[in-house]
Amino acid sequence: MLTRRQHQEARDRAAAMMRGAGVGLTDKEVAAMDVADFGLGHLEAEGAQIVSFFNSERVSAKVIALFPGQTLPEHWHSAVGEDPGKEETIRVIGGTAYVYIPGEESIACGRIPAGKDGCYSVRHEIVMRPGDQITLEPGVKHWFQAGSEGAVMFSFSSAARCALDPFTDPHIVRVTKITD
Ligand code: ZN
């Protein structure tokens, strides 16, 4: 849950980061930004700010800003009906992002959010800077964490059905509640 004020502050801060990375955004897109606290109530630690450019039945494009040290929690994109699940390419365009995928544990630059050991199972670290990109196949668990200067990244994918994505942390609620 976020207060309206927290939501607006995060939205404006993230919009400045996105625009600072060279992404042109309309005020309407900024107003519609998804400030996601994942129902955990500690946005700065675990959360993400996401602007969706479009999301059709087949393709989707977004820009994601993470504040310094902010973590987008571990999740994967599972099959929905005849769709095998979202294939997603993440391309960093500003700052530094640590991406975690299955493989040999190599977490060094980032860290597991405090008290959340059981919610972050994949720990193979890839350090990504502007121009670096990675394609995540459907069903592959992944999570992201920004470096000390934050991170801005594009997400290009097949159709996104984010509200249905499974997360490792059972406490996560994908749709953010905003209160006055
Ligand atoms: Zn994802």
Structure keywords:
180 residues, mainly beta, Jelly Rolls, 8-stranded antiparallel beta sheet, two-stranded parallel ribbon, 2 helices, 12% helix, 38% strand, binds zinc ion
Can you tell me about this structure?
The protein has 180 residues and is mostly beta strands. It has a single domain, classed as Jelly Rolls (Sandwich). 12% of the residues lie in helices and 38% in strands. The protein is built from two helices and ten strands. The strands form two sheets. Strands 2, 3, 4, 5, 6, 7, 8 and 9 form an eight-stranded antiparallel β-sheet that branches. A two-stranded parallel sheet has the order 1-10. A hairpin with a 3-residue loop joins strand 3 (48-55) and strand 4. It is globular. It starts with a strand and ends with a strand. The model has no long low-confidence stretch (mean pLDDT 93). Zinc ion is lined by residues 75, 77, 88, 142.
How big a fraction of the residues is strand? 35-45%
Name the structural class: mainly beta
Question: Low-confidence segments, ≥5 residues, pLDDT <50?
Answer: none
The amount of helix comes to 10-25%
CATH class categorisation: Mainly Beta
Give the SSE string.
EHHEEEEEEEEE
Rounded mean pLDDT score: 93
Total of DSSP H or I helical runs spanning 4+ residues: 2
Rg over C-alpha atoms, rounded to the nearest angstrom: 15 Å
For the record, the CATH architecture stands as Sandwich
Total domain count: 1
User: CATH superfamily assignment?
Assistant: Jelly Rolls
What hetero molecules are in the model? zinc ion
What name does the CATH topology carry? Jelly Rolls
Ends distance: 10 Å
